[in-house]
Amino acid sequence: MDTTTTGQEIFKKVRKIEIKTRGLSQQIFSGQYHSAFKGRGMAFSEVREYQYGDDIRNIDWNVTARFNHPFVKIFEEERELTVMLLIDVSASNVFGSGKQLKKMLAAELAAVLAFSAIQNNDKVGVIFFSDQIEKFIPPKKETSHILRIIREIISFEPRHQNTDIGEALRFLTSAIKKRSTAFLISDMISPDFEQPLRIAARKHDLIALRITDKREMELPPAGLIRFADSESGQQFWVDTSSEETRQHYQRWIRHQIAGLDNLFTRNGVDNTPVFTDEDYVKPLMRLFKKRGK
After folding, report:
1. Residue 66: is it exposed, middle or buried by C-beta count within 10 angstroms (0-12/13-18/19+)?
2. Which H or E run includes 76?
3. How is domain 3-37+79-292 classified at the CATH fold level?
4. How far is it, in rounded angstroms, from Cα 21 to Cα 14?
5. First-to-last CA distance in the chain?
6. Closest among 205, 216, 214, 213 to 269, alpha carbons compared
7. What is the pLDDT of residues 237-263, one digit of tens each?
8. Which residues face 235 on adjacent strands?
9. Other Cβ atoms closer than 10 A to 273
10. Which helix (H) or strand (E) segment is 259 a member of?
C-alpha cells in the first residue's frame, strides 16, 4: 500500500468519524455535556451591596470597611473549560473481536467528547501515552484542531508497546496548571497507578472510560489456544476446553474489574466501561446524567 492510499484511507476514516460524532454531539450530548461539566468553576465577577438572604461568607470586608456598610462578592460560572483527553495508544488497544478495535472506539469517544466541548466554547487538548508520553497536543478550540486529534488517533504509531497510566497522570498534573476536565480513555491494563490518580483527581475533574472487549471477559471453549501478550510479546498455550480453567479466568477478570471500580470510587473518579461491540451512547449518557444530578 503506497503513502497516497494510506492517506486517503485515513482521510475517509476521519471523515466518517467526524460525521457520526459531530451529529451525536449536536443531537444528543450537547445539553448533557453542559449540565455535567459546566458550573464546576466559579470566577469573581463584581461586588454589590448586601441584600437580605445573601451568604455572609461572601462579604467583601475591604469594600465593606471603605463604604461603612456591607458589600458581597458576586461569582459567576467560568464559561470556558479546558478538556484534556488522555488516550492510551499502547499495543493492547490494537485488539477487537467485534465490529471494531479498541483503538477505533477510543477515536470515536475522543471525537464525540471533543465536538461536545467545542460546542460549549471549551478548549481541548490531548495526551497520547504508552508507558511514556508519546505526544502532547496543547488545548485549542478550532474544529480543525479536533480533526487533527482524530487523525492522530487513527494514524499514530507509538514508539513503545507497554502501558503506564501513572506516567500519563503525572504529566497531566505537571503540564496543565489550570483545573481541567480530564477523560482517561484506556483499557486500564497497567501497573499500579493509585498514587498519581489520587493527586490528579484532587487537581482536576477526572473521568475514566474503560475500553474493553467481550472476548476479554471470558474464554471460549475452543480447545488448545495459543495466546500472545501484545505488549510484552510473550506467548503461551491455554487449554480452553477445561471448564476449571475458564472459571478460574472468569474469577480472575472479575477480581481485576472490581479492583478498578474500587480504585476509582475511593479516589472520587467517575468511571464507566465501554465495549467495542456495543453502542457507546448509552454508557456516556448514563455518566453525563449521573454527573448532571
Report:
1. exposed
2. strand 71-77
3. Rossmann fold (3.40.50)
4. 10
5. 50
6. 205
7. 766 677 777 787 778 888 889 999 999
8. 228
9. 17
10. helix 243-266
